[in-house]
Amino acid sequence: MFTGIVTAKGRLESATGTGDRRFTVASSYPVETIDLGASICHAGVCLTVVSKQATASGSVFEVEVSPETLARTTLGAWQLGEEINLEKSLRLGDEMGGHLVTGHVDGVGEIVDREDNGDWLSFRVKAPEQLSRFIAEKGSIAVDGVSLTVNSVAEDRFELMIIPHTAEVTTLGSLQIGARVNLEVDLMARYAARLMQVDR
Q1: Residue range(s) occupied by CATH 2.40.30.20 in the chain
Q2: What pLDDT, in 10s, does the model give residues 1-60?
Q3: Of 121, 130, 128, nearest in space to 148 by CA
Q4: 3-state class of 13 per DSSP?
Q5: What's the pTM?
Q6: Where are any strands of DSSP class E within 56-193?
Q7: Is the pLDDT of residue 75 over 60?
Q8: Are 173 and 127 in contact (CB under 8 A)?
Q9: Which of 123, 151, 153, 143 is closest to 186 using CA atoms?
Q10: Is 104 helix (H, G, I), strand (E, B) or coil?
Q11: Are 52 and 34 in contact (CB under 8 A)?
Q12: Pfam families in the record, alphabetically (predicted)?
């Protein structure tokens, strides 16, 4: 489990393979703080560390990505040098600063509008139609692994306000109109909808 509070920005160093792929990611995480087999959230996608190596600025580690993940997230379109929001998994006793995030992407959205208000940013995001019912005004959503509050919702589009700190320490500040983003809806909303289906 994760909280949607990004703790580092990584960079895609290499990508090998065709069906399933292996990504090498550079990060500022000290290598001794990364366990083999650990789960790290990459732009909202939970991936398992399969190798690691120390570097002068932190570490590089490798993760394996299945064809299903490549097809259902933005990871299949990643380019070398791509910046990636990273978050290590929760440990017992960690502060719960965002909201519960599983690292299982529900769908890919698109930035359809961006407005710069000084250091603040606002985005309008188009969500896949099947996710719209899970997105509520003042509810939580994870966008590329970042826990955010929904400002407003209209049909399949929702608005977000990005504070300067979040724009600086995550990849959200660089998003432009047309960018595709990984979306994970609020876990509680998903289970509430499922319970309603079962009760019918």
Answers
A1: 8-88, 107-199
A2: 999 999 999 999 999 998 889 999 999 999 999 999 999 999 999 999 999 999 999 999
A3: 121
A4: strand
A5: 0.93
A6: 58-65, 83-88, 107-117, 120-126, 140-143, 146-154, 157-162, 180-185
A7: yes
A8: no
A9: 143
A10: coil
A11: yes
A12: Lum_binding
**Token pair listed for 12:** 């895609």
Cβ pair 6, 36 in contact under 8 A: no
Contact 145, 43 (CB under 8 A): yes
Helix (H) or strand (E) holding 22: strand 21-27
Pick the CATH number of 8-88 from 1.10.240.10, 3.30.300.30, 2.120.10.30, 2.40.30.20: 2.40.30.20
| Residue listed under structure tokens 């006793």 | 93
Say which residue the tokens 């087999």 belong to. Answer: 37
Q: Which two tokens stand for residue 17?
A: 């393979």
